[in-house]
Structure formats: structure tokens, C-alpha cells
Design brief:
single chain, alpha+beta, Glutaredoxin, 4 strands, elongated
């Protein structure tokens, strides 16, 4: 004969399993949030262009990969050129970045070089190598 269901005590999850689950959940959420943070120390302050120091501006749209690839290249050479040129990002997700892109006809992954007075010296469309970026930066010496 079977025991009626009302006489069977409900199974309870031990408190330590609940705690472990909550820690794993919070840790997973923190990891996802951490991966979404920007991975660059490059400023988005475009008002610094033409303020006495040359600037190299990357036009960036986080919905595309081209700019991310160029950003990796910039991060590689930034310390080498930091004394000579300021690096900036024009985010297409922000009004200032969209205005920059419209003014200089740039899109995700494009670089634009300015002299210390804010005059455009040149640009590159999604450069595929660090050497191409260095060639652009060599215009500062001319």
C-alpha cells in the first residue's frame, strides 16, 4: 500500500547549497558586468583637440568589430607615443562622437590625426597594421 502524499515531508534544500548557488549567481553576474566594461584608458574628451597637443582620434561604434581591432592596435602603441600625441575616441553612440564622424566623414575603426592647432593632418580607414598607424603618426614630424 502506498503512503498518501500528505504524509511525506517536503524535501528541503540544505542552506549551504542555497548559499553556494547565490554566490555562484552573483559571481556570474559580476563576471558578465566586468566583461562589458570598456577596456581602454583612452579618453573620449574631444574638446582637447586643437588645445596645443596633437591628437589621434579613433571613431568607434561598439556594435561593430573594426573599431575594436584598431583599438587593440592603439593600446599596443599608446605608451610609445603618449608623450607626443594624445589618443582620443569618438564614440558613435554619443552625440559628440556622431558630430565628429559627420564633420570628418569617418566611421567605425577610422583614425583621424590632428596637429596641435586642431588642423587635420590625415586619416586612415580601418588600418590593418600597427605600421600603417605609425606611418600616419610620422606626419607629426613633417
Amino acid at each position: 500500500m502506498t503512503t498518501p502524499a500528505s504524509n511525506v515531508p517536503p524535501r528541503r534544500i540544505p542552506p549551504w547549497i542555497k548559499t553556494l548557488f547565490m554566490l555562484a549567481l552573483v559571481g556570474g553576474m559580476a563576471t558578465v558586468a566586468w566583461t562589458q566594461l570598456p577596456r581602454t584608458g583612452i579618453s573620449t574628451d574631444l574638446s582637447a583637440i586643437g588645445q596645443g597637443r596633437p591628437a589621434l582620434v579613433l571613431t568607434r561604434d561598439s556594435n561593430y568589430l573594426g573599431g575594436a581591432e584598431v583599438l587593440e592596435k592603439l593600446n599596443t602603441i599608446q605608451s610609445q607615443y603618449a608623450q607626443r600625441v594624445q589618443f582620443r575616441i569618438a564614440h558613435l553612440g554619443e552625440p559628440v562622437g556622431r558630430a565628429f564622424a559627420e564633420t570628418y566623414q569617418t566611421q567605425d575603426g577610422d583614425l583621424t590625426l590632428f596637429d596641435e592647432d586642431g588642423q587635420q593632418l590625415g586619416g586612415l580607414v580601418q588600418p590593418k597594421s600597427i605600421e600603417r598607424i605609425e606611418q600616419l603618426l610620422s606626419r607629426l614630424d613633417q
